[in-house]
Design a protein that fits this description.
This protein is an alpha+beta fold and 155 residues long. It contains three helices and seven strands. The mean pLDDT is 90.
Length: 155
């Protein structure tokens, strides 16, 4: 039973600011519920530690695509299987829409029940609302990584 999440939010900052802040992966615990840490290993690899449905999980993910001010895509390479993309849409000089699409594999009865009652959707919605609050209250990003990552056609 695969899970799919689709959520979006509008933030009152320029697309560049929203994108730059999103690429600060190690700051995800500031707004993502249950995420203990995200460690950037290199330009395309991150290690996650999170509590999901009361269990601690660790996994590695690869950034498979990154286009400044447009999109960031990833896939887990081990552990907690998930993949997704966040796209950034310029709505105006200082208004941006973020869209999150994510696929994942619920494990165990608690996660499967959570998936059935849309707990995962609500969690991501809450994460996006906290991201909005964080980036709008600062008015600027805390850093940026503007490099590009292209999907390897052979993978």
């Amino acid at each position: 039973m695969a899970g799919k999440i689709e959520q979006s939010i509008e933030v009152e900052v320029p697309v560049r600011t929203a994108y730059n802040q999103w690429t600060q992966f190690e700051e995800f615990p500031q707004f993502m519920e249950g995420v203990e840490s995200v460690k950037q290993l290199d330009d395309t690899h991150v290690h996650w530690v999170a509590e999901i449905a009361g269990k601690r999980h660790e996994w590695d993910a690869e950034i498979t695509e990154q286009n400044p001010d447009e999109r960031v895509a990833w896939k887990a390479t081990d552990g907690k299987m998930n993949a997704g993309v966040v796209t950034f849409h310029r709505l105006g000089e200082s208004k941006t829409k973020l869209m999150v699409q994510m696929d994942y594999e619920p494990e165990g009865i608690v996660e499967r029940v959570g998936h059935l009652i849309d707990a995962d959707e609500r969690r991501v919605k809450g994460d996006l609302e906290r991201f909005k609050e964080l980036v709008e209250s600062r008015g600027t990003e805390t850093g940026a990584w503007r490099g590009e990552v292209e999907q390897d056609a052979t993978s």
